[in-house]
C-alpha cells in the first residue's frame, strides 16, 4: 500500500496566481462580450477552489507534511497557496464586490496560514544561511515576499483607512533575505551550468519586486516619486533576469532541442506568467500607452502558450498511462 502518494504538486498555487492576475488586469484587452466574462471568472474560481482544496487535503497527511516542512527550499512553494487565495479574493472583490464580508473571513483565515508559513520561512532562511552547501536555493524562496505583499494588497482593499506601510517593508525585508541567499548560491556554491542549474522560478526576482511596487501603490503610503523610482528598478531587474533567460533558452535548445529544451511543461513555468502579469498590474499605475498595451498582449500570449503546452503534455501522459 502506498501511503505517500502525492495528490498535487505543492507549487500548483502558481496556476491560480497566473490566471488570477490575468483576470484582474490584461483580460480587459481581449474582445470578449460582457456575457463571457462571468463564464471565465466562474471557471477560474472553480479551478482555483479545486486546486486549493487538493493542496489542503494533501497537507493534512502527516507523512506528506513532515517531509514538506523539513525541505528548506521546496517548503517556500506554500507561498503560492497564500498568494493564490489573495489573488482569488482580489478577483472576487473586483467583479463581485457584494461578497466582501465572505472574502474578509477567507482572508482572515489566509492571514493565519501566512503566519504559519512565514514562521517556517524564517526557520528555513536560517538553515539556508547556516549550511549553504547543503541546498540549492532558487527563486521559489522569494515567494515569502510575494505572499507577504499579496496580503498587504488585499487587506488594503478590504480595510479603510490605509494600512501603515510596515507590511510592505516586511515584504521587502523577506525579498532581501531571499535574494542574498540565492545570489550567494549562484556565485559561490553552484557547480552546474546555466542550461541546467538556472531555475524557472528565478523570474520571481522581478515578479516579487512588481508585486511589492503594486503594494506600495495600493497602500497609499509612498510618494509618486518613490513608486516611479521603484518601477524603474523593477524594470531593470526584469530586463536583466529575462536576458539571462534568453541565453539559457538558446543553450538548452542547442543541448536538448526545441521541444525538450524550452517547450516541455513544468509547473514552475506558471511563475513567469504570474510575474509578467504582475508587472503589467504595477505598470498600469505608473505608465499608460504603448508600453502597457504591448505588455498586456505579452501576458496574454504567454498564458495561452503555457496553457497549450500544459494541455499537450498532460494529454500525452494521460494517453500513455491509459495504454499501460
From TrEMBL:
UniProt keyword Membrane present: yes
Residue ranges of the TM segments: 7-27, 39-61, 73-93, 99-119, 140-158, 164-183, 203-223, 229-249, 294-311
Record key words, sorted: Membrane, Transmembrane, Transmembrane helix
Protein name: C4-dicarboxylate transporter/malic acid transport protein
Amino acid at each position: 500500500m502506498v501511503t505517500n502518494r502525492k495528490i498535487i504538486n505543492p507549487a500548483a498555487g502558481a496556476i491560480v496566481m497566473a490566471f488570477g492576475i490575468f483576470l484582474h488586469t490584461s483580460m480587459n484587452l481581449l474582445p470578449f462580450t460582457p456575457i463571457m466574462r462571468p463564464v471565465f471568472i466562474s471557471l477560474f474560481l472553480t479551478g482555483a477552489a479545486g486546486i486549493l482544496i487538493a493542496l489542503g487535503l494533501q497537507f493534512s497527511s502527516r507523512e506528506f507534511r513532515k517531509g514538506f516542512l523539513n525541505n528548506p527550499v521546496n517548503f517556500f512553494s506554500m507561498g503560492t497557496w497564500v498568494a493564490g487565495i489573495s489573488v482569488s479574493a482580489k478577483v472576487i472583490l473586483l467583479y463581485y464586490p457584494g461578497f466582501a464580508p465572505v472574502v474578509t473571513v477567507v482572508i482572515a483565515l489566509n492571514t493565519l496560514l501566512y503566519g504559519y508559513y512565514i514562521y517556517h520561512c524564517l526557520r528555513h532562511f536560517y538553515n539556508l544561511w547556516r549550511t549553504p552547501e547543503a541546498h540549492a536555493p532558487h527563486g521559489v524562496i522569494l515567494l515569502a515576499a510575494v505572499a507577504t505583499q499579496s496580503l498587504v494588497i488585499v487587506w488594503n482593499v478590504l480595510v479603510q483607512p490605509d494600512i501603515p506601510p510596515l507590511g510592505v517593508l516586511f515584504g521587502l525585508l523577506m525579498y532581501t533575505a531571499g535574494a542574498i541567499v540565492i545570489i550567494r548560491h549562484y556565485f559561490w556554491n553552484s557547480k552546474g551550468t546555466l542550461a541546467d542549474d538556472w531555475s524557472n522560478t528565478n523570474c520571481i526576482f522581478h515578479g516579487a519586486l512588481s508585486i511589492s511596487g503594486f503594494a506600495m501603490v495600493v497602500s497609499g503610503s509612498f510618494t509618486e516619486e518613490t513608486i516611479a523610482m521603484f518601477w524603474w528598478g523593477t524594470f531593470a531587474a526584469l530586463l536583466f533576469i529575462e536576458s539571462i533567460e534568453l541565453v539559457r533558452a538558446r543553450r538548452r535548445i542547442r543541448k536538448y532541442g526545441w521541444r525538450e529544451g524550452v517547450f516541455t511543461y513544468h509547473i514552475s513555468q506558471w511563475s513567469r506568467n504570474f510575474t509578467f502579469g504582475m508587472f503589467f498590474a504595477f505598470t498600469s499605475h505608473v505608465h499608460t500607452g504603448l508600453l502597457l498595451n504591448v505588455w498586456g498582449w505579452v501576458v496574454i500570449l504567454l498564458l495561452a502558450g503555457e496553457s497549450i503546452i500544459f494541455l499537450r503534455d498532460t494529454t500525452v501522459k494521460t494517453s500513455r498511462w491509459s495504454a499501460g
